[in-house]
Amino acid sequence: MREEKTNVMRLLEQKKVPYTPHQYAHSEGEAVDGATVAGLIGKAPAAVFKTLVTRGAAKANYVFVIPVLAELDLKKAAKAVGEKSIEMIPVKELTPLTGYIRGGCSPLGMKKRLRTVLDSSARAQAAIVVSAGKIGYQVELSPQDLAGLAEADFAPVTRDAAL
Length: 163
Prior knowledge:
163 residues, alpha/beta, three-stranded antiparallel beta sheet, 5 helices, 26% strand, YbaK/aa-tRNA-synt-asso_dom_sf, Prolyl-tRNA_editing_YbaK/EbsC, Cys-tRNA(Pro)/Cys-tRNA(Cys) deacylase, YbaK/aa-tRNA-synth-assoc-dom, protein biosynthesis
C-alpha cells in the first residue's frame, strides 16, 4: 500500500502534533467495524475509538469519541453537553454535515467545528487511534493532543458494560 496522506494527517503535521499513521486493507466503500480495525492494525480495542455524530433536543450537533467496543449512553451524552436528550443523526446527514462518510468519520477536520466530547476512558491511554478521515486510514495520537485540537471535553459517555 502506498503511503497516502489524508486531510487529518496534513492538519496534524501543520499543527506539529506527533502521530502514527495506520492503514488497513478494505473493500472499496466498505465500512469495517471497530473491533476488526483494531485487529487489522494490531491495537487493543480499548485504544481504538470511533467517532459518533449526534443531534440534541435543541437541534445542535455534537461529536462523541468512544472506544470501538463501547456503546454511547445517550443520557450521559446529553448530560455532558447540557441537552435534554441526544439522538444519533441519520447516516444520510453525515457527509453533508461533516464532509466524511460512515466508517471514515474523524473528530478532526470536519466541515464545521462541532462540540466534541471524548469518553473519559481515553485519559487512561497513552495514545488512542481514531479515523484519519477515510476508510482504511487511522491515526494514533495522545488523547490530550486530540482533545486540544478538537477543543474537546472529557466526560463519561459510554454505557457501563454489563457485568
